[in-house]
Structures are given as C-alpha cells and as structure tokens.
Amino acid sequence: MQDMGRDYRIIGFLCNWCSYGGADAAGVARFSQPTDLRIIRVPCSGRVDPMFVAKALLSGADGVLVSGCHPRDCHYSEGNFYARRRLEMLRRFLPIMGVNEGRFEYIWVSASEGSRWRDMVTSFTEKIHALGPMPRMAEPVRTMCQLSGMLGQSLAQPDMGAEPLSDRQVQTVLSGEPRLPDWSKPPRVEPRADALLSASDIAGLADKEENGHGR
Fold it and tell me: Which of 26, 60, 155, 209 would be 31's cystine partner, CB 3.0–4.6 Å?
C-alpha cells in the first residue's frame, strides 16, 4: 500500500562529477523533490562496492539508489562500466537475500540534467513507498558474508566490456559447483628430452611402485 505521508530511509550514492551536480542543479532550480533521500557523495559510481548497497539494505534502509555519469562520459573514463557490471550482478542476487529487487536502482544523470534527476528520484521514491518499509532480516551478518562470497566468485575477473553473466553462469555460482581440476586421475607427465631416465624406465618404476616393489 502506498504511503506518501511519511519519510522512508533511502540511501543515494552519487557520483561527484555528474549526478551530484545534477542533484545540485535541481536544488538551484527549486524543483520539488521528495525528502526521503540521504545522499552519500562518492568520487565515481565505480567506487560503489556492491556490499555498500547490501549493507545499507540489510541494516534497515528502505531503498538504495546509485547514480553516475552516462556511459562513455565518465570522468575516469571507465568507472561507470565497472559499476554497471557489479550492480547488475548484485540485482540478480537480491531476491536470494530475501530483498525485493525493486528496492535497488542505478541510473545515469549528468550535471546539467536537474529535471531528469528530479523525475528519477521521484519515481524511485514512489516505488519505495509502494513497497513499504524494509522488513528486518533475521541474520543480516550471515547473509552479507554469503553474498560477499558469491559476488567474489562472480566478479573475480571483471571485464568492463562484458555483458552480465548468463542465468546458467549465475546458477553455477549459486550451486557451488567446483571449478578445480579433476584430481581423481593423476596428471600425465612427459619426460624432458635431457632426462636421465627414459619414458620406459619411468613406466617401469611406476609399475613397481603400484605393486609394492619400489619400497
């Protein structure tokens, strides 16, 4: 049920160079805006670790908004590409944490887009009011530890130009399928050309070892 009569706790991580300027432009223009948003200014959207968002939600925030420069307009060239990959992956894990994915959003707003900032913040705030207060989590610390491990596997080698992981890749991470080599069979070692023993000598020694004659 939508409740616009009270303020909700919405955390906003804003890029210093674009989105923070857009929010400031909206204020200078005296646009009417919701008062639910608490802004945290960061150097770049790429600096926003997914665990910042998770911790805010699990600690009682009703919603989290991340806003940065438009793609290809980042002050640090590629920071928002890093942000997009990480935050899109986080969105897929939110339902597993028991969090409605509608409580999180990331957007792009430039310093000159005061009206866009107002519209995006108003829309997101209305969505949070429709969802209601964030339910309290039973074991937030344990949930954060599990999420940190899953995200660590998923983003171990971030590729800024890559598309988000496929559903199958996500399921692989969640199922905990091992990525180690199969050690059930011993690796085959090829002898060097200058080795003192020939391949046949090595095979003979291996047979003796298996039969207990090599001790």
Answer: 26
Q: Is residue 41 part of a domain?
A: yes
Task: For residue 101, tell me if it sits in a domain.
Answer: yes
Q: Record the pTM.
A: 0.67
Compute the distance between CA of residue 38 and CA of residue 16 in angstroms, rounded to an integer. Answer: 15
| HSE, side-chain direction, 13 A CA sphere, residue 67 | 29
Q: In terms of C-beta density within 10 A (0-12 exposed, 13-18 middle, 19 or more buried), how is residue 74 classed?
A: buried
Distances (CA, A) of 28 to 23, 70, 73: 9, 21, 23
CATH number at residue 156: 3.40.50
**Rounded-to-integer distance, Cα 2 and Cα 159, Å:** 39
Give the CA dihedral 141, 41, 63, 76, nearest 10 degrees: -90
The answer to the question of residue 52 being in a domain is yes
If one counts the domains in the chain, the total is 1
Residue 32: what residue type? S
For the stretch 39-81, pLDDT in tens is 999 999 999 999 899 889 988 899 999 999 998 899 998 898 8
| Domain coverage including residue 159 | 10-175
Determine, yes or no, domain membership for 127. Answer: yes
Counting as low any pLDDT under 50, the low residues of the chain are 1, 156-165, 170, 173-174, 176-187, 189, 191-192, 194-195, 214-215
Cα–Cα distance, 129 to 72 (Å, whole number):
33
Distances from the Cα of 82 to the Cαs of 35, 151, 158, in angstroms?
29, 14, 7
